[in-house]
Amino acid sequence: MNEQLVDFIKYSIPLKIEYTENKGRYVVATQDIKKDTKIVAIKGYSTGIIDSFKKKICSVCLSINNEGFYDISCKSCNIAYYCSKACQMYSQRKLNHELICSLLRKLATFKSDIHSKSIMKLLINSLSLKKSEEEYMRLNSSNDNIINNWLSTVPLPSDIEEYEKELEELKLKVIDNNCEKNNDNNIDKNHIDEEELNKNTGENKLNIDNQESISSSEDEEKKKKDKKKKKHKKKDKEEKEMKKHKKDKKKEKEKINDNVINENEINKKEKSKHKHSKHHKKDIETNEEEKEDKNIDIINEKDVNSEKYDTITNTIPYSGTYNDMMNLQSHFEEWTDDMKREWQKNINFFKKLIQESKEIYKCMEDVIQESKNNSIEDINMDTEVANYLMHFASLVESNSFGIWNNKGKCIGRIIYPFASYFNHSCRNNCYPVQYKNHIYFFASKDIKKGDEVNFSYIDTAGVSLKERQAHLLADYYFKCQCELCCEEENEIISSLNNKKKKKKAK
């Protein structure tokens, strides 16, 4: 959330970034903010989706398929899946997916824990974005406002809509061509020859699967009937869920009116996913237990309030640059020798892996050279790639957020560079909610102008001062000195002093 890159006033975001030596960078409210207000929406920069869930989540917009699997995929690597052809086009045109196909395919075969693999995947995706960024800068080097122009090209839902329109227009063209050839005006728009469509888009590299045409009229009729049955079943299921949802809401309102739910319980429901860290490693590796002890806010797309989760109001319309991500805090220097040894197997594999792509390896070399301010001849690349990977792993552990499905299972991780400037507080005044590839921050209480805006990195409900501070120190490398912790520390000190006075009096 660099002041130079974000015009907060222009985007109606009531925030600013301040800095102190003690706190580092932190977020401050520039106006009074009422409880439940959407403060800001932030787009993710890069993701690392766990391979076993790759068919359940769109690689571009992160739309989760809770009822089945997506069937549109990149046929070169079979790692990236998409919810629509528009997202697939976006991946090819804007995310430079072609560059990393072979790397992702090889990474999928590597026998390592999924925690480490998701970090390596996130780095590969990030280097691909970095390459896109460099190419744009090279082609537009004469432009004074080059960075802002690059940021404005970073894909947003509006880009996806543009691709959808493009696909629709091309479909109509194909229909018109077929009508002229066949003299038939009753061609079904939804059963267009995909090869013809790809030919018109010039996107043959997308390798979109051709749907099998059904020659027999009986088979066609059977297919329609099956589709109708599924539609009715789905509708019935949705109606049942809606009734249950309304019933639950009614009960909850009655409880609130009867003062049964106290303030802590309400706040607990409002909280969302906590920041990702190494303490999730075991959960990511097993993925067997639901996160019952976490306050996970799962957003079901069917029940989404589109106004609440829109990406127009209070939205930063870009996700940042590679450098924005790499400028986030890493705690690599605080890693123990054992932690570094744990990563050695991953490092050896990763060094060989990225050497298989000249473009990505060159990108990595350039990044390391920039950070060292040395000529490439003076740098030991083997050592520096190892250090860079561990530095990146530490950065991801401290700054990434988990991506969760509706069962509370972690299916990947995502970095929102601008969200990392929100500090932790055990008495937080906002909470994050993730929906698709955005994170939304809502006020959990009234916030005054000039107040720091913060959220809780961990579950603090019913957790003692000692446990909270130990948890944060182990996973985020800081001793919490928030308002609540200071109050509780002072109470403990005061209590000890009173006991000493009583002993002396005796």
TrEMBL record:
<feature type="compositionally biased region" description="Basic residues">
    <location>
        <begin position="270"/>
        <end position="281"/>
    </location>
</feature>
<feature type="domain" description="SET">
    <location>
        <begin position="13"/>
        <end position="458"/>
    </location>
</feature>
<keyword id="KW-0863">Zinc-finger</keyword>
<feature type="compositionally biased region" description="Basic residues">
    <location>
        <begin position="224"/>
        <end position="235"/>
    </location>
</feature>
<feature type="compositionally biased region" description="Polar residues">
    <location>
        <begin position="199"/>
        <end position="211"/>
    </location>
</feature>
<dbReference type="InterPro" id="IPR050869">
    <property type="entry name" value="H3K4_H4K5_MeTrfase"/>
</dbReference>
<dbReference type="InterPro" id="IPR001214">
    <property type="entry name" value="SET_dom"/>
</dbReference>
<feature type="region of interest" description="Disordered">
    <location>
        <begin position="197"/>
        <end position="292"/>
    </location>
</feature>
<dbReference type="InterPro" id="IPR046341">
    <property type="entry name" value="SET_dom_sf"/>
</dbReference>
<keyword id="KW-0479">Metal-binding</keyword>
<dbReference type="GO" id="GO:0008270">
    <property type="term" value="F:zinc ion binding"/>
</dbReference>
<feature type="coiled-coil region">
    <location>
        <begin position="129"/>
        <end position="180"/>
    </location>
</feature>
<protein>
    <submittedName>
        <fullName>SET domain-containing protein</fullName>
    </submittedName>
</protein>
<keyword id="KW-0175">Coiled coil</keyword>
<feature type="domain" description="MYND-type">
    <location>
        <begin position="58"/>
        <end position="101"/>
    </location>
</feature>
<keyword id="KW-0862">Zinc</keyword>
<dbReference type="GO" id="GO:0005634">
    <property type="term" value="C:nucleus"/>
</dbReference>
<dbReference type="InterPro" id="IPR002893">
    <property type="entry name" value="Znf_MYND"/>
</dbReference>
